[in-house]
Amino acid sequence: MQRLSVRHTLATAVTALCAIATTANAAPRSVANPLATEDQRVLDALAIEINNGHDFPVLKASAKAAYQTAHGLPISDEASSTLDAAIDELAFSAIQKAVNNDPYYPKVYVVDAGPREWFGLDVPGGRYSYDNPDCVYRTIPIDSGLSYIVTGKRFTPGPTDVSFSLISNPNSQNTVAYLAGEDLVLGSDGSYKITINSTSAEGATNHIQSTSDATQLLIRNNLGDWTTETPDEISVRIIDDASDHDPISKTKIVLDATSNLGQSIVTYGVGALGLKTSINAVNTLSDPSQSSSLGTLTSQASSFGHFELAIDEALVVTLTPGAATYFVVPVTNPWMVTTDPAKQISLNSVQADPNTDGTYTFVVSLQDPEVYNWINTTGLTEGTIMARWQGLPTGSESSSSSDVAIDIQVVPLSELASVLPTGTRYVTPSERAVQLEERAAGYARRLQG
To answer: Signal peptide location in the record (predicted)?
Structure first.
């Protein structure tokens, strides 16, 4: 039922997009979707083929047990009803990581995304461990002994936040080298080239130095305004001669997928859900901290927590941006997976309305409180939250993460007005309908294939 609901919403989003495009006669012609590439079609088709032929029943059972243990007892019927779907997406994510794992034949592949229909393919969801609804995640396999050129094109407007991380493992995602978006040098036409090899990055422009630990380039394009911002167009080329290397076999892909799923059970079930999230008291969020592991960025601070709400209650979350150039507060289900991105399950630094003092206050609730900064639980009475701040200084300068902060309290909806800041922006039902229509249309732009 959940998957059918998502597809129905995506269809609604596409309809909304077409309606807006029809009425906006003066709007410029949109850029073709840079995510809908031939490499994406080939890899999605292969991932579907592997998924249809391999169900991984033992590993899925182990994953389910690990997630249940990390969650803790009791587990409500509501939470249990979405667990199998979350494990299915975890398994498909493991396959997606495996199909694009040949450094001699690298491709650019969109991963960690919800179910979609494009290229005539019915692509399952591959979301895991706090997928960000703003983010287009793309991967490129690399080998530290080889040289690569990543070619990109920035459209106007481009993503609010961009990063390129060399990671040591597609599951733990520990960062070993990093190129920040603000350090990327663009040509006058928005084009750029990034070199990746073992030579030093000191004094170099658009260069990432690989090490013996590096196995993959993870590219994040965070879209602030979904209705206007477009992900970069990205391709990759290996410089070295790969003619004496055969492409990886399907047998090797299945073995890699099996290994990925096994590692994911520990990394995400035990680590992200257990040690990062469930360890916190309910309806609290951890202090923001920077890390280079578990899918985070060295330039990112993160805060984790889980909530339980009655239908007449709300979480009031106040965020201090500090030195961050981008932030987002998304709600995910009890298993760290977004429910329906086209609904207002998140707000970021571009979408949200600020307080007069520069902080941001969000209301997380089942019912619409008629507050502009409402984050919709989509009917969930319990779930998880990973707030994140990006664009922060790294290394010895990372102490600036102390400038970011987040506070949270639970209040009855009947008392909500008494705790909201002066000047809080409210919306009428018709204004909310426009806000949600624009969001759905913005999300649909990524799904055109």
So the answer is: 1-26
Q: How far apart are CA 68 and CA 80, in angstroms?
A: 9
pTM of the shown model:
0.91
**Structure token pair of residue 275:** 């040690």
Whether 365 has a pLDDT exceeding 50, the answer reads yes
Number of H helices, E strands in the chain: 6, 21
Number of domains observed in the structure of the chain: 1
In this model, does residue 407 exceed pLDDT 80? yes
What three-state secondary structure class fits 384? strand
Residue range of the domain that includes 352: 280-447
310: domain CATH number?
A: 2.60.120.1600
Contact 206/179 with Cβ under 8 angstroms? yes
Considering only CA atoms, which of 89, 80, 101, 71 is closest in space to residue 6?
89
Closest CA to 228 of 180, 293, 156: 156
Per-residue pLDDT for 379 more than 50? yes
How many CB atoms within 10 Å of residue 244? 6
pLDDT bucket at 32, cuts 50 / 70 / 90: confident
The whole-number pLDDT of residue 230 equals 98
CA-to-CA distance for 70 and 279, rounded, in angstroms? 9
Residue 20 one-letter amino acid? I
Token pair listed for 32: 């073709």
Does the residue 17 lie in any domain?
no
